[in-house]
Amino acid sequence: MILYRPVGTKELNLIKESSYRAFPPKLPEQPVFYPVLNEQYAIEIAAKWNVKYNDDHKGYVTKFEVDDSYGTQFEVHCVGDSYHEELWVPADELEEFNRHIIGEIKVIREFSDD
């Protein structure tokens, strides 16, 4: 299963610290980790949300793969347009989710307001 995750610089730095193998734990006020199912939606979030609301005005799109048999256990939620699909992973299951990432998390797009 190919997934995408729009991130800001702080989250990207934590991903780098894991040698691009894991996403960092979520904050207590973030009960769900939600990678998205398509690049177009990830681009929208990174370019419009991350660039606008992150301190350094940068956003990135990461792409990664998760074992299909594991990833399909999580609910897919459509949160807007038909392509606004997210995989909802409970935050307390993120460590196990990270163990099912195949290969490295890749940065495929970068946005800034420069």
Structural summary, described in words:
- The longest helix has 15 residues, at 39-53.
- The protein has one domain (2-112): ADP-ribosylation fold (Alpha-Beta Barrel).
- The chain has a 3-stranded antiparallel sheet.
- The N and C termini lie far apart (33 Å).
- It is α+β, with helices and mostly antiparallel strands.
- The chain contains 4 helices and 6 strands, in the order E-H-E-H-E-H-E-E-H-E.
Task: Identify the notable features of this structure and list them briefly.
114 residues, alpha+beta, ADP-ribosylation fold, 3-stranded antiparallel beta sheet, globular
Brief rundown of the structure:
The protein has 114 residues and is of the alpha+beta class. The protein contains 4 helices and 6 strands; from the N terminus they run E-H-E-H-E-H-E-E-H-E.
